[in-house]
Amino acid sequence: MLSKNTIKLIASLSQKKFRTQHQLFIVEGVKGIQEFLDSSFELYQLFATEANFSAETILISEKELQKISNLKSPNTALAIFKIPKQKTAEANGLILVLDEIRDPGNLGTIIRLCDWFGVKTLVCSEGTVDCYNPKVVQATMGSLARVHISYTNLSNYLKTANSAVFGTFMEGNNIYTEELPKEGIIVMGNEANGISLEVEQLIHKKLSIPRFGNLQTTESLNVATAAAVVLSAFRRGF
Amino acid sequence: MLSKNTIKLIASLSQKKFRTQHQLFIVEGVKGIQEFLDSSFELYQLFATEANFSAETILISEKELQKISNLKSPNTALAIFKIPKQKTAEANGLILVLDEIRDPGNLGTIIRLCDWFGVKTLVCSEGTVDCYNPKVVQATMGSLARVHISYTNLSNYLKTANSAVFGTFMEGNNIYTEELPKEGIIVMGNEANGISLEVEQLIHKKLSIPRFGNLQTTESLNVATAAAVVLSAFRRGF
């Protein structure tokens, strides 16, 4: 049985305000939950229609799950995990920096890309969508458990960075022919406005993804697919 | 003023059955509509709250637009365009083939990638989501007007193809080191199941995108970001 308070708590966690207040977030689906259980994240409560997990499980009915789920077709389990304390971003390796990414699906896809391309550190501007937003968690498919994400003032972060800072722009050195290092910081900009002027001034090398199609249109690549191309270009030589 | 019949027609076009019956589809937003007006697509009717277009416009109120729009925050215009007759797929150039892509957002993103990477021909299996689905049209950001899309039986299509057929798999030649041709056919598979067995048998060369992250997980790349990496790899040398 679910108490009224539990139902209220879970519903509240779809809002950032309450996630911050309680320092908790929601993961849905057996596969995703298992990936968080296998990681360093700490479980708060686990609800499921079947006892499939090694962790302590509160058994609920399908009807109860439907009531607390954010999904149209709920899976068989929903878990509440604790938001880990934010650590200082690592200074080494390939680091991705996001300047005001607003769309939860884009952030989720980018976290998944980081996991694939071995980018362990993702640094987000304070205005970037919250990575514990349920839509982001869902889109990461468990990768969120393996990528270290921090939110900070990008100007301060980039000013004190030791590595070369790269950014993608409409004009810049061709990413396919440029020699790219194994370590460095790559900045991706906002969906509509790209990299902000303040951050642009802190970029050491401007890169661009050549366009092969119709050159008349002003259309750009979606930020998540652009991140796929950029990370792929940085990794291909190693 | 909008007639009841017009409102009914527009509502019906969110379903494939009625798009096929009427051979019409919906485009929303000034920018997208302008790109279709500038293309070879034929306008059927155009509704807008302001007279912004060179084409004949039926002026409607914001309230009326809200009633016919599929969007939560409707733009200022909605247009009905005619679905063009399906042409035979071109045999030359770089061709992308989709095997049962189900998610409208993924198809929209892939059409946008084709536009960017100069892929003029996209061949879809009959079970791939309809490219005139409003969510696909919205996600293409106008690219749909510039990429030639056809739906066909993939086995028949690939059996008679003149070019080399490539596909991405978990196991295959490293896409970063493989020498890739300027022309050819690239197959991308379904979100959950990848390339079907029937289609796999018609692939000449298996490629794979190396993973740099945690090798224990079974997680794969999203099909749209995988398409970005693959198209980028095929284009980087040219």
What can you see in these coordinates?
Two copies of one chain form a homodimer. Chain A is an alpha/beta fold and 238 residues long. The first copy, chain A, folds into two domains: 4-82, Ribosomal protein L30/S12 (60s Ribosomal Protein L30, Chain: A, 2-Layer Sandwich), CATH 3.30.1330.30; 94-235, SPOUT methyltransferase, trefoil knot domain (Alpha/beta knot, 3-Layer(aba) Sandwich). Chain A contains nine helices and ten strands. Chain A has helices spanning 4-12, 16-22, 30-37, 62-68, 104-116, 134-140, 154-159, 197-200, 223-235; strands at residues 24-28, 43-48, 58-59, 77-82, 94-98, 121-125, 148-152, 165-174, 184-188, 205-208. In chain A, the strands form two sheets. In chain A, strands 7-6-5-9-8-10 form a six-stranded parallel sheet. A four-stranded mixed sheet of chain A has the order 1-4-2-3. In chain A, helix 6 links the parallel strand 6 and strand 7. In chain A, helix 5 (104-116) packs parallel to helix 6 (134-140) and helix 5 (104-116) packs parallel to helix 9. The radius of gyration of chain A is 20 Å and the shape is elongated. Chain A starts with a helix and ends with a helix. Chain A binds chain B through residues 35, 105, 109, 112-119, 141-143, 146, 176, 209-214, 217, 219, 221-222, 224-229, 232-233, 235-238, and chain B through 35, 105, 109, 112-119, 141-143, 146, 176, 209-214, 217, 219, 221-222, 224-229, 232-233, 235-238. Chains A, B: Pfam families: MRM3-like_sub_bind, SpoU_methylase. Chains A, B: Keywords: Methyltransferase, Transferase. Chains A, B: Residues 5-79 form the MRM3-like substrate binding domain. Chains A, B: Residues 94-231 form the tRNA/rRNA methyltransferase SpoU type domain. Chains A, B: Belongs to the class IV-like SAM-binding methyltransferase superfamily. RNA methyltransferase TrmH family.
